[in-house]
Amino acid sequence: MSLLEVRGVTKEFVTRGEGAMARKSVFTAVDKVSFEVALGETLSIVGESGSGKSTTARIAARLLDPIGGSVVFDGQDVTRARGKDLARFRNNVQVVFQDPFSSLNPRYTVERIVTAPLTYQGITPKGGRQAYAQELMERVGLNPDHCRRYPAQFSGGQAQRIGIARALAVNPKLVICDEAVSALDVSIQAQVLELLMRLQRESGFSYVFIAHDLAVVRQISQRVAVMNRGRIVELGTRDQVFGAPRDEYTKTLLAAVPRINPEWDAKRRQKEAT
């Protein structure tokens, strides 16, 4: 059974032009999108800006409500979940956002930030919040003694690690990464990707990974969904999508990606096989 099933979800937004007499118009951001994610799997959703991938991610995380379709998590329909049912869902599904600084309260210490999900869920960790926050910091490669610092005292890459630590606090089954590395320098991107993959190997949770960078997607994914104008136009394994794309839009995206060094690619594949 799949951990997450998104079934035919649709989302529309109402927009209005400029001027007092401007008419309203309806924009379909997501149009009958369906996909599944297995436990321990990374499904990447890729597409250009405006393709609907981030809106899809927010629907899957129940940050937005669809006007049609359903979201099923661990066998339970959570599309209209409220109260305790929604709290239970959010205990199992966490989000890492694109801009770490905008998602971290600048007035809170790191300790308070990374243990916030515990507060919302009414969970008291063994050993206390400070010890647990230090454990989370160490787990994501940061100095545990820096828990009393504030977000502004960290670099962008470090701030994103804090966001990842916060997502891990409640031991989720699914982590949704919405352009989680796109705002980082290339060298820092690689470090954060390695961290994300290591954490998945250690804990076995799933990722829905939203990105526009196909080189990043190729590195982290088992399966890839390609979105264009609110619809999934191609869905398959990483090797299928990158090696034998069927849709013309996918071919266009791949043609714009710089060629990957074949020697490096062979080494990566050999590493994954061991």
UniProtKB/TrEMBL annotation:
Gene3D superfamilies: P-loop containing nucleotide triphosphate hydrolases. Keywords: ATP-binding, Nucleotide-binding, Transport. The keyword Signal does not apply. SUPFAM superfamilies: P-loop containing nucleoside triphosphate hydrolases. It comes from the Bacteria. Residues 4-254 form the ABC transporter domain. Pfam families: ABC_tran, oligo_HPY. Belongs to the ABC transporter superfamily. This is ABC transporter domain-containing protein.
